[in-house]
């Protein structure tokens, strides 16, 4: 693209350095002092008022008011901005093409951007087109798979889109200038106009996006260009408003919609660099699309929302007082890919088995074991106590020297519990009667 079809300037500086808009051309008296110069360099410009024209195909149209570069005095030299001016369209467009790694191609009279985007690193879900959409199978284009990012950290397709948006914004987003750019998506048969790919920042332009989302006609990833006007952070999510008062055509409180960028607590760093006044280009991914949120309450308007999943879906920059944009940037990539949370069922709590209470049993009889005597003989243990459990008094001996015969009543029978016999008990000898010397000592 050369300067044969120069972009129409929408701003200029008068003799006193006051910035003049193209909307002021034709006012009487003129609100500026001639001569006029470019807003960013010292090249002289002329004011062109609105005029009716006829195209080369014989169709009438109206040429809008604008500023044009003054013709060069040297014969054969094309008028162009001075070196270093950001409005040198031919240099800017060629620079975009060189830095795009082949995704931005120069065509006759314009620049075409090939929108080759890979799925986000988190979901890997294929895009589901609406029924009946004339789509083709996506081409196996490994450009974005081989080249992860360029300087700044953005894929080449998103970087080129952000720079094109900056260039058009410096020319006031004039419709005639926008016509020079088209976008080619692998799933579409023919290229689409830039206005069908990038919506905004004009609310009337965003109204077309709202209508297409409501009708389910979005067939390829689209971008929204806007300015952050509100940032709200809660414990669960971060929300950035980038457009408001979007006409919807509905009656009552639903007559206007708003456009938001939202991120949950895990992807909050993607929206942290955004502040009020920042310019944003938010690009949908093949598997992450813009969605239309319709609240249940009729007092709240509809919302067009994008939940970005990867850092390259957001390009942002600032604009200084002179209207010059800074290079586009993007948030830092997420350190670890966030896997979808899987709900794990808690282990079933089994009831504890009932405690068995021991059945009261009668004490088993003590098993006596013969203990060895120091002399080497085995001494029998003491016998079981009698039923009366009272010792019998000594009986005096008779004249014959013998004690009367006394017998001890047998002990009462003891019930033994029904248990398996552990071992055969050792037989115990019956007790012996005391001898003569024992009876003599008792006297």
Shape: elongated
Average pLDDT confidence is 76
The largest beta-sheet arranges its strands as: 14-15-16-19-18
Distance, first to last CA: 148 Å
The Cα radius of gyration reads 50 Å
Number of separate strands: 22
Tell me roughly what share of residues is in helical segments: 10-25%
User: What's the order of the H and E elements?
Assistant: EEEEEEEHEEHHHEEEHEEEEEEEEEEH
User: Residue ranges: pLDDT <50 for 5 or more in a row?
Assistant: 1-5, 124-153, 336-342, 366-370, 373-378, 386-390, 395-401
Biggest pleated-sheet summary = 5 strands, mixed
Task: Tell me what you see in this structure.
With 443 residues, this protein is an alpha+beta fold. Helices cover 12% and strands 21% of the residues. The protein is built from 6 helices and 22 strands. Strands 14-15-16-19-18 form a 5-stranded mixed sheet. The chain has a 4-stranded mixed sheet with strand order 8-9-10-11, with helices on one face. A 4-stranded mixed sheet has the order 12-13-17-20. Helix 5 links the parallel strand 12 and strand 13. Helix 1 packs antiparallel against helix 3. The chain is elongated. It starts with 10 loop residues before the first strand and ends with a helix. 24% of the residues are buried.
Question: Which characteristics define this entry?
Answer:
443 residues, alpha+beta, five-stranded mixed sheet, four-stranded mixed sheet, 6 helices, 22 strands, disordered N terminus
Question: Short summary of the structure?
Answer:
This protein is an alpha+beta fold and 443 residues long.
